[in-house]
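User: Please predict the structure of the protein below. I'd like the answer in structure-token form so I can feed it into my own downstream comparison script.

Assistant: Understood. Taking the following sequence of 657 residues as input:
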Amino acid sequence: MPYTPELLRAGNSGDKICMASKAIRAKTYAFLAAVSINLLSHTSNIFAFDSLSESDMPLSMEVNGKSISLQNLAFPITKSDQVLSDGASIYIKNCVLCHGDLLDGKGLYSESFYPSPANFLLPQSILSKSKLFTFWRVMKGGLGLPKKYEPWNSAMPSWEGVLTEEQVWKVIHFIYEKSKELSSVTTQDVSVPSIENGEKVYSENCSICHGKKGAGDGPGAKVSSPFPRNFIKGHIKLRSTPFGKIPTDKDLFDAITNGSKGTTMPSWEHLSENDRHSLILYLKTLSKKFAKFVKKGKTHNVVVIPDPPKFTLASLERGKDLFIQNCSACHGIKGRSDGASTKKIVNIATDAIWPRNLSKPWKFRRGDKRKQIFQTLRTGLSLTAMPRFSPRIFKDEQIWDLVNYVQTLSPSQKPKTPEIFNVQKVDGPLPDDTDDPVWKTVDSNFYLLAGQIIQSEKVTYPIIDNVVAKAMHNGKDIAFYLHWDDPTVDPILKKSTTVEESPAPPLPAHLQTDEPEEQPTEELKPQEFPDSIAIQLPTSINDGSEKPYFLNGDPEHPVNLWKWSSHPMKALEMTAKGIMKINVQKDSSQNLTSKASFKYGRYFLLMKRPLTTSDVEIDTQLRPGQTIPIAFNIWNGSAGETGSKKVISSWFDMILE
């Protein structure tokens, strides 16, 4: 079989399942039957929620201790342009990350929550229901669903106590008006493109993020990372022109049409070509650079992308050397954004964001195909620390060598989140380390994470966006293996466990000396806030029909948190009755053991606990064959995350063989 980048990337796509592991599961017919029943139940509830109608709405509800009738209540605020504008600002601040700029349920966090956020443009959405119905759903969220729809367990939070009634009515007014507008968009061109039409399109669709004058200072800028583009400067990141040069009209058209993956900038493909070309004409009036370009009679020097040569192992080795010398200072040895230089320049508040994590190609702005990576290397990303690789210094062959190596740093495709977290049963003792070869025989489970948005203290620009988990049990104990990417490590860990950080790249040969310079001794102190991760489980496991609130439960439905922290470096069992109501269990109730390490921008953690404990009232009791809800919380301490400032997952189902 010939070597290809895809073949080498596949070897990096997660742990493989050995034949013995498959044979074990093939014998567990009862387990598979339980999974099938659970999936059917889960699917039927999804369809059931689609049929949620106004007849399911209660006659009245309590809001902040006040009873509100939901029968024949008139819209309580006067409609106006100001109310619509206020509603848009409230939506951007509180709703856009899930429901999206286009109200289509495709916000930045949309893939991180299950079930997905509502698409307000669908015929069966809130547009087909009264505003009273929507007022009920917004105020009460997923927790307020009728009992017959459990275990729906929507991640939609309750906004009662967070937004005022007036704010809720304003955002409802905006959602209805904007949804109707977007649902009625036509793609028919009615005239030739014009600056006047472009200004109108910009005002209606772009100004809320990019600002009225295009300075990137709209209300949406406060919830965006990277910041919305400042059009006055005349630059965009993805261009066919060299670094620092203005884009072509096609570059602008592609940016508008495709949007930008991993940001709040959506695709505007639904706009007519006329509107998009009009928008380009208007955008070019916001910067003086375009007029000067024309006045001086200049033409664009478009970077040509040649066809790639055949992949070879020799090319891969050359690419590795080039990467370490030229790229690892920012991207790190394994491409996980943990380079030594990066930590000195990253400043999220000023939009000096982390370099791309090259182990996650699905987040590459331009794309992860060979020609797309080549173009990014040749053109660089204007207004960022990502330079271009000039043809005067790097030949095309060298760029292709780099491309080949970059592709081996990541899986061949984005991992899928499984319906069921299967905990494999094994004989004998469980592993004591994440490096134990037995973990390679166990399925990996990929879970997306997003910042919680309901509490005022929240993560605005999360760096950590997924966790990989696997587990096994032996009938007595359970062991969890977890890993997640974090470009910085809590320095105090170097005193007690294995820590390997990406070093500064080696100097060129002509600058190296026989004796290395003596490095000052580093004083190891813990971060102000530790790096932490928690496995979340319900304290009481019933038949699966009702799960606690996914944000750490509530007083009536508490959860257990098995939380590991970098300082002090240990795992503790906690009981949570809400996102800010978490208590560490007494010493006699602590049954967790853990072992952690950090290697090139990635934490690795092993946590073990007996399946059952003597504290049956406060501890989750795990039994094979049960459907057990599981969720995850992660705090990036170096980014100031603590308390409610964290990233979270939805509930998922776990079953022990």
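That's the full token string. Residues 13-50 have pLDDT under 50 and may be disordered.
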